[in-house]
Amino acid sequence: MSVAHDNQHVASSADASSDAWVDLQNYRVTGYQHRGKLLRAIWYLVGLTMFESGLPIPSSLKRSVLCWFGSRIGAGVVIKPHVRIKFPWQLEIGDHTWIGEGTWIDNLAEVSIGSHVCISQGVYFCTGSHDHGKRGFDLLTAPIAVGDGAWVAARSTLLPGVGIGSNALVAAGSVVHKNVPPAVMVGGNPASFIRDREPPTAVD
């Protein structure tokens, strides 16, 4: 390819991108339950002080507070400090599940986490994206579900609409963009199959 052709390609690309293709002034927020402004304001303050802070607040109290705000929370759920939850009324967690420090449940859509699940430190549940094919850059939302016995390891990201199968393992730092079958290990960006996950050989 000639230098002249390269320069022409660069010039045409610059012309195509010289004006913004999206109009954020006309951005539309749709697709999730707004609830009332007062309820959201109260939750913001409660979430900031009780969940996002490092205060040593018992998980039992956190479970009760989440239920007051509409979450469905099972028995024995452990919620570490610095956990951020967007909308508690769109959250369901089964029994004896761990939510690790620094987890961000950005649940514009429903997030469902099963029983005996380990969500490690810094996991991000991303339920929202944008329609880049529309000038208004409209909000798109989709739920996330994690099955019983799964482990989502540290610093992983779950993208909108994915389901993590029961007893699956998502390796640390993974970006999951499609459904993960039960009882497999996946990892990487984008997350891909590593191997089958074997059940424990014994119970202590």
Keywords:
204 residues; alpha/beta; UDP N-Acetylglucosamine Acyltransferase, domain 1; seven-stranded mixed β-sheet; five-stranded parallel β-sheet; globular
What fraction, in percent, of the residue positions are helical?
10-25%
% residues in beta strands: 15-25%
The main pleated sheet reads as: 7 strands, mixed
Rg is 21 Å
Detailed description of the structure:
This protein has helices spanning 3-16, 37-51, 59-68, and strands at residues 72-73, 78-79, 84-85, 91-93, 98-99, 104-106, 111-113, 118-119, 124-126, 128-130, 139-141, 144-146, 151-152, 157-158, 163-164, 169-170, 175-176, 184-187, 192-196. It is of the alpha/beta class. The chain has one domain: UDP N-Acetylglucosamine Acyltransferase, domain 1, CATH 2.160.10.
In short:
With 204 residues, the protein is of the alpha/beta class. The chain is built from three helices and 19 strands.
Topology:
Blueprint: H1 3-16, H2 37-51, H3 59-68, E1 72-73, E2 78-79, E3 84-85, E4 91-93, E5 98-99, E6 104-106, E7 111-113, E8 118-119, E9 124-126, E10 128-130, E11 139-141, E12 144-146, E13 151-152, E14 157-158, E15 163-164, E16 169-170, E17 175-176, E18 184-187, E19 192-196
Parallel strand pairs: 1-4, 2-5, 3-6, 4-7, 5-8, 6-9, 7-12, 8-13, 9-14, 12-15, 13-16, 14-17, 16-18
Antiparallel strand pairs: 10-11, 18-19
